[in-house]
Amino acid sequence: VSDIIVERRSLKHTLNRRILRLAIPNLLASISVPLIGIADTAMIGHLHDVAFLGAVATASVVFDVLLWGAGFLRMGTTSIVAQYHGAGDRASCAASLYRGLITAALLAAIILAVRGPISEIGFSLAGGSSDVQQWAHRYFDVRILGVPLVLAIYVCNGFFLGTANAMAPLLVTIVTNIVNVGADYALIFGHWGAPQLGVTGAAWAAVLANGAGIVVAVGLLIWKYRDVLTARLHEPLLKRER
């Protein structure tokens, strides 16, 4: 009996460690998602016009809501890939990743096509003075260009989590935020030989940070999952349901 109790305790301890190994990096990656908007707001706050701060804060809220709504790309990819990964079906894991990226591309195209109405509705609900609205639109018009990159990152992170790799999304998030802070400092204030762009500089910094994030994600896919990505697919990526 004592041996059974010890074995159960050991199994429970091992299971708890595995859960924490997945949960803690995922938690850190999730809570750091809004940091791009927070970093932009913090640095814009050092500029002379308070309208700049209001504009970036308002636009960041619009982006947080917009991107939160696209979170299904990560969660859906995670659940599907996890099933195939557990079954050892590498080809279906790869197909799920590719389908997710196709979905992300289509959704990004739709968002870019209707970005005008999105900004109008979002900023009309948020309110603000005419100066705040003007600068918020300028920030939005630039940062919206990074949405396809963000959606692709969601799919890649979902794939990583589905294969029980929680460190990869954390690494992608860390690199994204570090690049954003550095690019903010350079492009907002004109340091390191960069042009001084102010509010639009913060938006371009976010786009560059998202670009760095997808580069890291793709690099990890090629490095860690080359055998999965090159697995022969059993079925077409886009199937017609009967």
UniProtKB/TrEMBL annotation:
Which InterPro entries does the UniProt record give?
MATE_fam, MATE_MdtK
Q: Keywords for this entry?
A: Membrane, Transmembrane, Transmembrane helix, Transport
Q: Name one GO cellular component term.
A: plasma membrane
Q: Which Pfam families match?
A: MatE
Q: Which GO terms describe its molecular function?
A: antiporter activity; xenobiotic transmembrane transporter activity
Q: Which residues cross the membrane?
A: 19-39, 51-73, 94-114, 144-163, 170-190, 202-223
User: What name appears for this protein in its UniProt entry?
Assistant: Polysaccharide biosynthesis protein C-terminal domain-containing protein
